[in-house]
Design brief:
Elements (H helix, E strand, L loop, with lengths): L1 E6 L9 E7 L6 E2 L4 E6 L4 E5 L4 E6 L6 E3 L3 E7 L24 E2 L21 E2 L5 E2 L1 H10 L17 H12 L23 H6 L23 H16 L2 E9 L1 H12 L10 H15 L5 E6 L2 E6 L5 E7 L2 E3 L2 E2 L7 H16 L13 E4 L19 E5 L3 E7 L2 E15 L5 H16 L7
Parallel strand pairs: 5-9, 15-18, 18-19
Antiparallel strand pairs: 1-8, 2-4, 2-7, 3-6, 4-5, 6-8, 10-11, 12-21, 13-14, 15-16, 15-17, 19-21, 20-21
């Protein structure tokens, strides 16, 4: 028997630290190679760490909620030297494919002789609660994160099992009524969010300097650590706001024909298993308009000799997603090559994975232009901040019925506002305006997409 330390590995993102989110094992547990031992959160993703050893868990060296540097020991194992795969496990085998509901699995762990099939733990089988709901643990966690009571969800899975789509559909429907009731004032009068180290960044985010009345010992205030996705997001947004000169333009449009198309697609047998929303038409419009005005899909690149503009002739379409872990911007690679149906499927996968907090680092890298759908929050328009490495971001406002003049008569129409922020170093006013006008044209008449 021997005791083995397992150090926090580099998960291939170029990051130096991660937070221990949840331990999946306890001292004394018996584990096999590739059993998930814990979840860690980096600035970009939630990752499951598989065990590189078969044996018994000795000691957990890092508590949940603590941030650990890469290379620091986090757990010990008591192993049989004959059964231990040894150092070769980190380089010679592929990681197992993630099981349903799982997140990104760290690549590079497995047995020396090849990938070891990961046994299905009893906890991952569907379980029935005391109130009779059948749902797998990942689905229960998703429901908790979204504030969904599983007893109120209509199941569509086999044998009455609640699926991911069931939870997501219920959550999207519930969000419509979320703000109808006005909440009462709570007992806490003030909440303090620690400012970034850079004082200018703190002022940019609208944070007031700390005063004596908001000391840490005052039980009327609460301090929330800035880490993980929130830390990365704040840094990226400040960098973007202060390095790229933002200019925002917007246009109010009649999107009635877009709503008609969405209704027809929902009723089509070809889209029976796909969730369709106006965001799909918006995505197609942005891709179409970016081809007509390529500079919105470009990037400003600093070089030793000055700067250059990289114009991309492909679209990795980013979709800003509000998730339980904070703001994520995963992107759909080579979106310009996808059909309407394939793009709809890609949007479904992207949205579901992001809301579960399982977006991989690779899905967040290499974006060329982004859409943020602020309409889901009931907002008409906004001035979004450009995602770093890009030159444009488009905001889609809520679509609601308003009086609109059609052929000299006032009629009720489905109206929305499309806004876009752009890097003025890369694109001039005429290009910005032409791009937003093109997006608006497609939403007003989706038939333009048929070429």
């Amino acid at each position: 028997m021997s005791t083995q330390n397992f150090n926090l590995p580099d998960v291939g993102e170029g990051l130096t630290e991660a937070e221990i989110v949840a331990w999946k094992v306890a001292p004394g547990d018996t584990v096999a190679i590739n059993d998930v031992i814990c979840e860690i959160e980096t600035a970009k993703s939630l990752v499951e760490l598989p065990s590189p050893h078969a044996g018994v868990v000795g000691e957990l060296l890092a508590a949940e909620g603590t941030t650990v540097e890469v290379g620091s020991p986090i757990i010990t194992f008591v192993t049989d030297a004959r059964d231990d795969a040894g150092p070769g496990v980190v380089t010679t085998a592929e990681a197992p494919a993630p099981e349903e509901g799982g997140g990104s699995v760290l690549v590079g762990y497995g047995s020396g002789g090849g990938a070891t099939s990961r046994r299905k733990r009893p906890a991952e089988r569907p379980v029935r609660s005391s109130v009779g709901v059948i749902a797998k643990p990942p689905i229960r966690k998703l429901a908790r994160d979204l504030g969904v009571d599983l007893t109120t969800v209509t199941p569509t899975g086999a044998d009455g099992e609640v699926t991911r789509d069931d939870v997501m559909t219920h959550a999207s429907q519930a969000s419509v009524f979320r703000n109808i009731e006005t909440p009462e004032w709570g007992a806490v009068r003030e909440e303090t969010v620690p400012a970034p180290q850079n004082a200018t960044a703190g002022l940019a985010r609208g944070l007031a300097p700390a005063t004596a009345s908001s000391s840490a010992s005052d039980d009327r205030t609460e301090s929330i650590p800035v880490k993980g996705v929130r830390k990365a997001t704040s840094s990226a947004m400040v960098q973007s706001a202060y390095s790229a000169p933002h200019v925002t333009v917007w246009k109010e449009i009649d999107a009635s024909r877009t709503m008609e198309l969405v209704k027809r697609l929902k009723a089509s047998p070809d889209y029976a298993d796909i969730r369709v929303s106006p965001l799909l038409i918006m995505a197609r419009a942005v891709i179409w308009a970016a081809r007509r005005t390529p500079m919105v899909n470009a990037a400003w690149i600093e070089t030793e000799g000055g700067a250059e503009i990289a114009v991309r002739h492909y679209v990795n379409l980013g979709i800003a997603a509000a998730t339980p872990r904070g703001l994520l911007v995963p992107n759909i690679k080579d979106a310009q090559d996808l059909s309407m149906k394939d793009l709809a499927r890609a949007l479904n996968r992207l949205t579901l994975t992001a809301r579960e907090g399982k977006t991989s680092p690779a899905d967040q890298q290499g974006g060329t232009i982004t859409i943020t759908n602020i309409g889901v929050f009931g907002m008409d328009a906004g001035t979004p901040i450009i995602n770093p490495g890009e030159a444009g971001i488009v905001a889609m406002g809520t679509i609601s019925q308003k009086p609109w003049v059609v052929d000299g008569e006032v009629r009720p129409r489905w109206v929305t506002t499309v806004a876009g922020s752009f890097d003025h170093r890369v694109i001039d006013g005429d290009g910005m305006s032409r791009f937003i006008a093109d997006v608006a044209s497609v939403l007003e008449e989706p038939a333009l997409l048929v070429e």
